[in-house]
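User: Run a structure prediction on this.
Assistant: Running it now.
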Amino acid sequence: MKHQARKRFGQHFLVDQSITDGIVRAVNPRRTDLVIEIGPGLSALTLPLLEKLDHLRVIEIDRDLAARLRRQHTPERLSITEADVLQVDFTEFGPRQRIVGNLPYNISSPLLFHLRAVADLVYDQHFMLQREVIDRMVAQPGDSDYGRLSVMLQARYDIEKLFDVPPECFDPPPRVVSAIVRMIPLGAERLKPKSELAFEQVVARAFGQRRKMLRRVLADWAPDVPWEALGIADTSRAEALSVAQFIGLADALYAAGRVGSGTIMEPVADSDASDD
């Protein structure tokens, strides 16, 4: 019996073999790699991955699809975690994870932030996402798409957009163009903030009102910013700052005791036109 795509899970099943082949070529898995597929669905990507791997791990929230996978594959070949991926503890899987998947677009930003927390355990990530989201992920300072998502992910990954995937490659077709992105975690030598929480707080606040000058957006924090030493004009807007400048800004405010405690804003869902 044909599986009916469930809107609440954001299901759009890939049906174009050429796209599947392109994703597998991009991943280029070795037989013993620890590959984790998020949202295997109807196995469009699962089957060609299994041809290349001794073992594959998948995460599937839909119990009917998880049951189908259990009927089709032995545990020796396929491990199934039946859960909401946002609730999965990826530290349980160990190091050098290679994560792939056609991600549900309605949770893609929260999921990217969720995975960012375990980037030290990840070798690489290859995802299908809404093209608009990937454009924001790779945007550079001064670009209209440059925002909170750009800064937070580029501080942790080398990100490359690979190719577009049109709606007709799916069943049912989404109302947006999709794309494939490669994300490789940056190494220990990367520029790191003194406090990850302080960095997240500063970036969230700076893009909270992206059209305003930073001295106004930062408000009570602004007097503690050594603007000239950081090479940042207090009349700049958030979209003009590089990742390194945001790290410098966060470090200065952390040293002044203004940030680094409390909580941060939740990531904005991709259905919103702005992540900022």
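The domain at 196-255 is CATH 1.10.8.100 (Helicase, Ruva Protein; domain 3).
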